Amino acid sequence: MSPTSPVSPETALVRLGLADVRPPAPIGNFCFGVRAGDLFFVSGTYGTTKDADGNDQLPITGKLGRELTIEEGQASARLVAINLLAMARAELGSLDKVLRVVRLAGYINCAPGFAQAPAVLNGASDLLIEVFGPELGKHARIALYQPDLPREAPLTAELTLQLHPDK
């Protein structure tokens, strides 16, 4: 629990109905994240959900500014953030080990002329603030424009967290 947040990140996950979210299966030869000193680097992921058989699926696909609206992009970004937190939790055992969110890097699949990548990535940033509170959840960020992403994913993102030194 942080001094500015009334609940711990784990309690926030329960409140948001996200405590049982399982991370997506890796689609390559890598782990969910790596600790280096007090920093934890979470691998990039998409906004997948699990189908009835437990397989990862992309419920939102397409290119921002062509098939998708900003709001649909924000919904996909929220799913990306949910998966990033599930991946971190799978490696760390608990999000209560996180001291603060450091950096979010998002890669937005968009049509030429689309200039709202930062607005799309707010869907992920908003969830991080809901989980960690406004002081510890607010983070450095970059929203990059991509001409294409695999599987017609609207975006992908990676996350850097600072861990408590005593946990």
How many H/I helices?
A: 3
Q: Could you list the spans in which at least 5 consecutive residues all have pLDDT below 50?
A: 1-5
Approximate helicity band: 25-40%
Strand order of the largest sheet: 1-2-7-5-6
Taking the alpha carbons of the first and last residues, their distance comes to 13 Å
Give the helix/strand class. Answer: alpha+beta
Folded structure, characterized:
This protein is an alpha+beta fold and 167 residues long. Helix content is 31%, strand content 26%. It is built from three helices and seven strands. The chain has helices at 9-15, 70-92, 117-137, and strands at 33-36, 39-45, 49-50, 56-57, 98-109, 140-146, 155-163. The strands form two sheets. The chain has a five-stranded mixed beta sheet, covered by helices on one side. The protein has a two-stranded antiparallel ribbon with strand order 3-4. A hairpin with a 2-residue loop joins strand 1 (33-36) and strand 2 (39-45). Helix 2 packs across helix 3 (117-137). The longest helix is centred in the middle third of the chain and has 23 residues, at 70-92. The radius of gyration is 15 Å and the shape is globular. It starts with 8 loop residues before the first helix and ends with a strand. Residues 1-5 have low confidence and may be disordered.
Can I get a quick summary?
The protein has 167 residues and is of the alpha+beta class.
Which tags fit this structure?
3 helices, alpha+beta, 167 residues, two-stranded antiparallel sheet
